Amino acid sequence: MSRPTQYKRIVLNSRPEADIQPDTFRTEVVPFNLKPDKGEALVQCTWLSLDPAMRGYIRDVRSYLPPVQIGETMRALGLGVVVEAGPGSKFKVGDYVSGTWGMTEYAVMKDKHLDRLVLAPGIEPIDYLNVLGTSGLTAYFGLKKIGELKAGEVLVVSGAAGSVGALACQLGKAQGATVYAIAGSKDKCEWLEKELGVDKAFNYKSSTFHADIKKIGYLDVYFDNVGGDMLDFLLTRLKKDARIILCGAISAYNATKPKGLQSYMNLISQRAKIQGFIVMDYASEYPAAIAELSKGLQSGTIKRKFHIVQGGIEQAPIALPMLFSGGNTGKLVVKVSEEPRGAKVKL
Ligand SMILES: NC(=O)c1ccc[n+]([C@@H]2O[C@H](COP(=O)([O-])OP(=O)(O)OC[C@H]3O[C@@H](n4cnc5c(N)ncnc54)[C@H](OP(=O)(O)O)[C@@H]3O)[C@@H](O)[C@H]2O)c1
């Protein structure tokens, strides 16, 4: 493969106080001097995942991962193809891989930081950024380990038309729960009901939202992607022994100081449990979960939806705020490049 003379990467330029700003990131064009060493591989990025967690990565606070520093390449999960293998690398040119190389067109990665994609009929590489990646695994482990959802229970999912939410809805239905979805538009609610088969979807921007939710009665499990006022309201809708899965709090990610909860005493009266989790804590159990989720994809019982942003890596910081304004339905990804010649798989 002929090498370019330069490549692009997106670095953190400044820390936003609230919403991500046009100058939060900047593009750097750097000379191409990447060469894999022993046990390393040079990867060409083909797809990037855009995730709400990125707002947290650029906040200078203690969290489950260190903050991205000013001037550093922005952290991001990607898919790509090995274009050169270093001496003794377990990867070969053309292998399809995933890894957290960040918002960059090319990266040299240590073998141990790359995963070779397992592809089978009915599985596309891009599924590893959605059903078989963080989103699917988060929905799977959130429901299983924290929600302990059982057949016949009532599950409510917020952020339901997003990547994690849409999978939580489908896994909940597959498990025999009654699933109520909450999303931010009529179109999203229609998609959730007609395509994903939830029992009913509610538009939280409707003036009758609170009254509408009250009509469904009380819930056993709440899969919370949103936090804030939505969580506060749903804490008033708990059955006895309810479980609240604190997956995310997107409504608060841009806030300087998130609001506190008013309704938490319902946790006491209803003997309810509320627990946060980080999906990567279950990494040792990923292979079994991916095998199960793959079967769902192959049989068609799990449906995937992508919101694809074309136009290369420079679109990544422009598209990222879409997650906070509700512009996406399904998994938000950026197409960074076409697969280089020699790649073993086609999309
Ligand atoms: N705990 C973990 O390990 C883990 C792992 C992955 C993701 N997460 C969390 O899971 C959640 C979903 O992530 P995702 O990747 O699937 O993103 P996503 O749901 O695909 O995209 C975000 C969606 O959130 C909704 N939203 C944005 N601002 C909102 C607000 N103020 N109130 C209500 N809804 C709002 C928007 O849809 P609407 O049109 O419906 O508003 C938007 O489309 C995030 O909170 C994320 O941080 C947690």
From TrEMBL:
Residues 56-334 form the Enoyl reductase (ER) domain. The keyword Oxidoreductase applies. GO terms for molecular function: oxidoreductase activity, acting on the CH-CH group of donors, NAD or NADP as acceptor. InterPro entries: ADH-like_C (IPR013149), ADH_N_2 (IPR041694), ER (IPR020843), GroES-like_sf (IPR011032), MDR_fam (IPR045010), NAD(P)-bd_dom_sf (IPR036291). Keywords: Oxidoreductase. PANTHER family: ALCOHOL DEHYDROGENASE, ZINC-CONTAINING (AFU_ORTHOLOGUE AFUA_7G04530) (PTHR43205:SF42), PROSTAGLANDIN REDUCTASE (PTHR43205). This is Enoyl reductase (ER) domain-containing protein. It comes from Cyclocybe aegerita. The lineage of its organism: Eukaryota, Fungi, Dikarya, Basidiomycota, Agaricomycotina.
